[in-house]
Amino acid sequence: MDQIRVHGGRPLHGRLPISGAKNAALPLMAAGLLTAEPLRLANVPRLADIASMTSLLRQHGVRIERLDASDGAGDTLTLSAEEIVSTVAPYDLVRKMRASVLVLGPLLARFGEATVSLPGGCAIGNRPVDLHLKGLAELGAEVEIENGYIKAGAPRSPGGGRRLHGGRVAFPFVSVGATENLMMAAALAGGETELVNAAREPEIVDLARLLTSMGATIEGAGTDTVRIQGRESLSGAVHRVIPDRIETGTYAMAVGIAGGEVVLDGAEAGLIASVVDTLGDAGLRLEPVEGGLLVARGADPVIGVDMMTEPYPGFPTDLQAQFMALMTVAKGASMITETIFENRFMHVPELGRMGANINVHHASAMVRGVPQLTGAPVMATDLRASVSLVLAGLAASGTTTINRVYHLDRGYDRLVDKLSACGAHIERVPTERAAAEE
Ligand SMILES: CC(=O)N[C@H]1[C@@H](OP(=O)(O)OP(=O)(O)OC[C@H]2O[C@@H](n3ccc(=O)[nH]c3=O)[C@H](O)[C@@H]2O)O[C@H](CO)[C@@H](O)[C@@H]1O
Ligand SMILES: C=C(OP(=O)(O)O)C(=O)O
After folding, report:
1. Is 422 among the catalytic positions?
2. What H or E segment, with its residue span, contains residue 44?
3. Tell me: the pLDDT tens digits for 21-63?
4. Is the distance from the beta carbon of residue 23 to the nearest atom of ligand 1 less than 6 Å?
5. What is the pTM of this model?
């Protein structure tokens, strides 16, 4: 397997482009199933997860053309779901990526039926989909679980067709994916749907913007109550994916850990206000500038600050591992509490191999900053844990070798190129060379 090697100790300087958001692009692609007309998405990042969603949608019969951006900007995807050949999302494709379950709402709403493999647990937690299923049942769906598959059918109308109806869905706690699945289903349901305690993430607002361009009427996206007026059919649309706020936060923390001054091109500070505040408290300088966000750290290390993950607008769980890496070299201590996923501290033992001082007690980790990390071979089990080790490697003395690079490929578009261009000493070592050198 490929490895990434980071030779630490170099500050970062220059400009680093922020790609389109993975977690916005995936539901937007699934929304392509809602219409027979073409949907054009610009600023799509080049990621393994986008390739997985492409394979899944193609298997349903969606035609997808990709226009590569030669200048390193995002790709443009044109999706055409005119002829659907299957409403089944098979285990082999769904197991690769949990966001695959987002085809459930659109397939059920447009074709009256869908059979989607249960995504199963993953490294960061159990991650059930009960809220998605209960919500769809409120829109009239009959849902059963059989042989590891979700089988859902819309109610039959007197005319013989099958269509969901509007309804009121009150989520017991916030779920990004359930809010997205329900919004897409409701966009083709008869009447109005009200989602209470809905997720407020910027990716929800982006999806609402797309569904509105496609003809749905949506109020309240970005607040905890979203109202959707469904339509008989939706049209095609042209849409630009928002910048990736998690990638933005990750590279801001890279500057925090390595030092230096970098402009994150295309970043929108407004999408990560809580992160900007927390990093400001830690001593980083963050300033919106023409076309992006400037991040700088002087000669002094960052200061330890406490942090708790929360649904948006709180501090995102998808930046918890990176923040922990930053705090390992802070002056002072930091208490980090993870409230969204029950098993999202797998980077802790690996950071420990690099000399970090971290004690975990239930959902909290006490991080006591050390003056210097040391490079080590490390392994990670999920996307954000992997990148936290890259960040730690930027600050460590000597070489850090990160194995299982495929996790990074899921969510970081051209990571090695972007960091190298800012002066980091980082390389991707192909499998054969890595094996020969071991
Ligand atoms: C593709 C994508 O956008 N992924 C993001 C999305 O994941 P995802 O949409 O899967 O995350 P959710 O917001 O649904 O999960 C939040 C919590 O609710 C639980 N839950 C969720 C649904 C459900 O039916 N039942 C249930 O118990 C989950 O196990 C978790 O503990 O939001 C997460 C929380 O911000 C992020 O970490 C992921 O990067
Ligand atoms: C957890 C993540 O993604 P997913 O929900 O696709 O697993 C993530 O992006 O950090």
Report:
1. no
2. strand 39-44
3. 999 999 999 999 999 999 999 999 999 999 999 999 999 999 9
4. yes
5. 0.98
